[in-house]
Write a structure and sequence with these properties.
295 residues, alpha/beta, Rossmann fold, seven-stranded parallel β-sheet, 10 helices, NAD(P)-dependent oxidoreductase, Epimerase_deHydtase, NAD(P)-bd_dom_sf
Length: 295
Amino acid sequence: MRIAFTGGSGKAGRHILPMLAAQGHTVLNLDLVPLHADGVDNLIVDLTDPGQVFSAMSGYANFRELEPGKGVPKFDAVVHFAALARILIQPDCETFRVNTVSTYNVMEAAVKLGIPKVIFASSETTYGICFADGEVKPDYIPVDEEHPTVPHDAYAMSKVANEVTGRSFQARSGIDIYGLRINNVIEPEEYTTAFPAFMADPALRRRNIFAYIDVRDLGQMVECCLATDGLGYEVFNVSNDDLSVGISNDEVRARFYDGVPVKREMTGNGTMYCNRKAKAMLGFQPRFSWRDVLG
C-alpha cells in the first residue's frame, strides 16, 4: 500500500513506520521533524495549514515515483497520529486548536482526494479519567467503547471532537474511518525503566485504568486496520491483554474500584480496558507483555 502517516517521528510512529516499510509499503512521514529510518520518506508539513496538507497528500512520496511517468499515484490510506500528545506541553487552547484543526485538515483532504481509508489516533483520555482534576472512576469496568466519553481537559476534548469529525466525514463520503482509543503507549525499554515503580505502587496506574499498549502491538493494530475494509466508521480501544501492575484484577477492584459496577467478569490479571471489539472485528491479538521481561 501507499500510506501517508502523520506524526511518524513521535513515540509511536518511530516504531510503526519502519514496521510498515519492512512489509513493503510505501510510507511517507508527514511531520515537523523527519524520521531517519530505512524505507521511510519524509515531508516537512504543518498539518494546521490546510494548503500544506492538501499539497502533501496529493504529491509524490519520493523520487522513485517520478520514474514511471504516469503522474502522481494516489494514497491508499492515511494514518493520522500527529498531535500535541497531552496537556501541559502548550497552553490548553493551543492543544485543542492544533489537534482539532490538523485532524479536520487531514480528513477533509483524504475525502476530497478520494483516499479510501483514514485511521486516526484517539485516546483513552476520552473517557474522562486520565487528566481529570482529582479522582474520577469509570462508570463501570471493564471500560469498553460504549462507556460515556465526557472529557475533563483540553487534550481529551480535542480527541472527542476528532471522533465527531471522523464520524461526520465518513457519513458524508462513505470511506472507512477508524478511530483508535489508544491506551498509554509503552516502548520495550520502559519495561525495565518504568514498570518496577508500577509494581511498587499500583496507584501510579490509576489514571490509565491500569492498562497499557506495547508500541509493537499498536503497530499490529494499525496493520489490522489497514487490512480490514468496509467497516465504515468505528472506534476501537487499543490495549494489551493484561494489567500494567503486579497485583491481580480482584485486588485492583478491591483497592481502587470498590462499588464500581462490573459489566463483564474479569479474572487473573486481565485488562480493565476492554479490547474485545478490536479482536472480534479486526483480528487484533496482542503479542507482548511486560511480564515476559520482568516475570
